[in-house]
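Quick illustration, no need to memorize.
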Amino acid sequence: MLLLNKILLKMAKGLWPWIIAILGLKLLALAGIALFSQTLSGFLGGMAEQPLSPAVGQALLGACMVLAGELLIGEAEYRCTARARIGLRKRIFSTILLLDVGSIEKIGMSQAVASAVDGIESMQVYYSRYLPGLFYCLISPVYLFFRLKDSSFGAAVFLLVVSILLFPANNIFKKIVKGSATSLVWESFRELTGYYLESLRGLSTLKLFNQDGEREKNLRGRAENFNRRLMEMIHSNFVSFLFSDGIIYLSVFASVVFVCTQLSRGRAALGDAIMVLMLGYGFFASVRQLMFSTHQALTGIAAAQAVSGILDIDTSRPRITFNRESVKADAFPGIRLEGVSYTYPGRDSGVQNLTMDIQRGMVTALAGPSGSGKTTLSSLLLRFFDPSKGRITIEGIPYAAQSPEELREKIVLVPQQVGIFSGTVAENLRIACPAATDRELQEVLGMVRLGDWLAASPEGLETDVGDAGDKLSGGQKQKLGIARVLLCKAPYIVFDEATSGVDADSERDIWACIAELALSRTLIIISHRLSTIREADTIWVLAGGRIVESGNHRELLKNKNVYYRLVQEQAVLESQGPAGPVKAGVL
């Protein structure tokens, strides 16, 4: 079975020079073995007639060819695997960074991790060992046949035929023996990885509800399922190797018996018999190496399906691109949406026919019940994905006429959960502006009320924030994220539930900072706390993915529509404690 997988071959761009180099080095080593064997067998067969010096020189040349080939094969395989790892992982990460939010949700963290780490490790063997081994397996028996046919034509034909039939015979035997398919092994491994990562992320929740024991039991079951399938596959491969080795050694033995019989009858010379003895196993060495790498190649093919699923995701819809020719500027000073619609693939939720203006220098708020489309709208404003219909402009220039890099200089996001990376405070801030000075870093930290904390930290800006910021409180993480946004100096800032996961003191500090920012930046605020957006210049209210009303706080209350009902419902909820309504005057 020739594993010429279209997906893997398509991803082999840039690797073919190394694949050909590995094949060439293998053939060099084979030529060295043939030269050494021919020299030694010829010398031993005519020891009384041939001088020693030429034989030693030829044998030394053959040995040097073998040594050089084997050494350089290892180096070439290393270079090929390194190129494959770097190239494929770069393609995966570059693709993920360009995908829209809906596509990223579709991929999932576990699939992305398994594909980029273990998947690539499995695939690179296909390029460094299987493909060169496959071509070598097709060439080497034919080459050895022509080197051996003059010594013993019958033995050469027999060994050539068996070497050609061995690989398909082995595949037939594996089907008879049966075992877990490699695709099932990879699928169970991916499920195990995803379940394990999910368990780690939610460990505190599991312990809180005393479900960690049950989770451990399920995890053990998945691990045992993966182990069982893996052992079945290994057992199948082991038995097939025994079958193949049996045929190989029986064939070599049969060829030696044949040539020895010819020798005893005077139909073959001693040198010919030695030549068959030395090169007989060479007919099968390439086949045996190929069968060994086939198992890893099958794993790579299974992994390639998942990797291809990432690289080819959402190909029916245009990626985030920009087109200078689409520039049709208008004079509106802010962000304008004209008939904008977006629907997530496979889901009904999204936004429909949104037309709205976000005035420059003003505070604009987005309100609405859960699932109304607020976060989808913010993602469109940040161009995490493009609308399926409609047009968005910023400062009169269409989004489609700007690259993502250009747009990021104009509008940034403070999400509900800020991403903090391992390292120092300074390193996390300089993600937004690598050239920022220490003084600039201290200024933005002071603006978000982290100045006193920084002054009390012995290491200052070099304070280690821990793994993913685990040495910081929730409020400190959020403030650090806002400081990072301030550092990039983008004129438009989107706050998407930026205070939903912080304590009361941190929330007051953040809203005080937001109030100061409103004097110099254009703010778009999404908040579940309607009391925090009552001073916004304009509030756009969404329901069912559509804009149902707009205006300031007072105007919307007078309308007594969706916004009015939301305010009333929230007032009732805030007036109640855990045990029911609180007494008047307590709050």
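The chain is about 60% helix and 10% strand.
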